[in-house]
Amino acid sequence: MSRQSQITSFLTTSSNPSPSAPSHEDLIQPSKKQKRTRKRTSWIWEHFIKDLNENNEPVIVCQVIKEDGTKCNVQFKHDGSTSNGNSHLWSAHQITKVGLQPEEKQLNVIEKHTEKRQTELQQFLTNWIVDDLLPFSVVNSTSFRIFCNELDPTFLVPEAKTIKAIIHKAYNYIQPKIIEQIIKEATSVSLTTDLWTGRNRKGFIGITCSYLDSDFTLKEIILTVQYVRYPHTAENIAECIENILNQWKIRHLTTTIITNNTSNMKKCVKLLDGISWIGCFSHTLQLVVGKGLFVARNLILRVKRLIDFFMTPKQSERLTVIQKEYPSLANYEDDEEPIVCFNEYFIN
Description:
With 348 residues, this protein is of the alpha+beta class. It has twelve helices and twelve strands. The protein folds into four domains: 42-109, no CATH class; 111-185, no CATH class; 186-279, ATPase, nucleotide binding domain (Nucleotidyltransferase, domain 5, 2-Layer Sandwich); 295-347, no CATH class. The strands form four sheets. A five-stranded mixed sheet has the order 8-7-6-9-10. The protein is flat and about 85 Å long.
């Protein structure tokens, strides 16, 4: 077959495709991806189903059969967490991840608290976490949940997400009231601010507002502790402070800002019209003392090396033995353990 015949045969075949072959348009059509649903992995779905309540809000409904043969049908608002369902199965039905608990391990079953009482107890728990600066993850501790269940089996311990929501709700409630109080009581306010780098290597700024009311009572309010974008130039810091003052509606009341003596903080205050800069006295005193001790730097280094020497385990043990051998020099009674103190460290 000649070359021209081969080309003609190819063109004829291409222009009359077989019925079973896909068209060119079909080949370039993007394939539709099937929507993937997230697989539910929590064990509580063996006993709960998802539903909507009368307010058309998502809830989970307990399907456990009670002793009288009826379903439990207790509902909990569902925000993606399974913590409430987990606590309910444990406290109401003695069901855990491994199944029904034996009678000697079963918990006392009492009807759950009303929603109002449950909210009050959650607020007390949140107050404890905030006042003692505890991590939110404490509520996820199994031992803590067992402890709470022993104290009150009807209290459903919330998870960390719920604690955060309670704190945000409280902040949004109280902030307008504080703003109203400042505007009502203060004729002018002074700010104290500092900038530092956290363990996550991000910059944070803290601002405290101070003023005297009509009775000359000093009032101090922490306005914020929040992230500051990098770089920490005077312009970025000034923009952040400006936004915070506008948010709290005290820009017109602010007269002075107290900061440390770093150049970016001093410059940022200059960029804020109508606000004066005051250097932090403590920071200034620290600089003065540091420069005053500069002449004694060699002596200080030797003392530090001496302290580091005695802080090693070997030398600390040797010093303890010597103190026991010569109690009169160590200034302690024979029946007492010697205390070694260097650089505010105590070794018993």
